[in-house]
Amino acid sequence: MAKGLKSVFLWSAVGLAALIALVFVAAAVVGYFSAEGSLDEDRAIVWIMGAFVVLIMVGAMVAGAAWMRSIDEAAREAHKAAWYWGGSGGMAVGGVLICLATLPQADVISIPSWLDGRTDPAAYAATGAFGMMLLMLIGYTVVWAWWWITRMRD
User: Fold this and answer.
1) What is the dihedral of CA 51, 54, 58, 64, to 10 degrees?
2) What is the spatial distance between Cα 72 and Cα 4, in angstroms, rounded to a whole number?
3) Residues 6+ apart with CB under 8 A from 142
4) Phi, psi (5° rounding) for residue 111?
5) I need a surface site. Which of 23, 81, 128, 153 has the fewest CB within 10 A?
6) The whole model's pTM is what?
7) pLDDT digit string (tens) for 83-132?
8) What is the C-alpha to C-alpha distance for residues 132 and 138, in angstroms, rounded to an integer?
9) How far is residue 89 from each of residues 51, 79, 83, 107, 120, measured CA to CA in Å?
10) 8 Å CB contact between 72 and 3
11) At residue 84, what are phi and psi to the nearest 5 degrees?
């Protein structure tokens, strides 16, 4: 295990456990005040969910930065190349699909929402964003594996 990586894992686990505990406390508080009628439950859920998602993303960025500092130069270069070439390639594939979706002929294609059958614009936007991220992650994985395979043969 790389120097400092154990610390990154430990602090990530502590942060995740604290976040999970905070979710339970927030849910209990919202449930209590909602039962009393002094709180609009839908509005509270949106604000709490937004706050937790921001905390998760900030935590992921901090953990990612700490992890990148703890790995060796070869691993850093593999990940940088994979994100640049693989992520860009996946986004290019998604871009082609977006361009094709603008054609009038695309109205016959029915793409289901991945959000429990919802058909509102936000659900379709989230489905498209998830699809784009999925394509980028597939490209990343392919290029990362290719990078290591070519270096291992030498």
Assistant:
1) 130
2) 11
3) 86, 89
4) -105, 120
5) 153
6) 0.71
7) 999 999 999 999 998 898 888 888 888 777 777 878 888 888 888 899 99
8) 10
9) 32, 14, 9, 26, 29
10) no
11) -70, -60
Residues 83-86: contacts with CB within 8 Å, 24+ apart?
Answer: 83/140, 85/139, 85/143, 86/136, 86/138, 86/139, 86/140, 86/141, 86/142, 86/143, 86/144
Average model confidence (pLDDT) across the chain = 86
Residue 5 CB contacts under 8 Å (≥ 6 apart), including other chains: 67, 70, 71
Over the stretch 12-49, which tens digit does the pLDDT of each residue have? 888 888 888 988 888 888 888 878 877 787 888 888 88
d(Cα 47, Cα 32) in Å, to the nearest integer?
A: 16
Encoding tokens for residue 132? 């784009």
Q: In this structure, what DSSP letter does residue 38 have?
A: S
What is the greatest pairwise CA distance in the chain? 68
Contacts of 107 (CB under 8 A, 6+ apart): none
Both tokens of 39, joined, read 């709180």
Distances (CA, A) of 145 to 64, 87, 133: 19, 13, 18
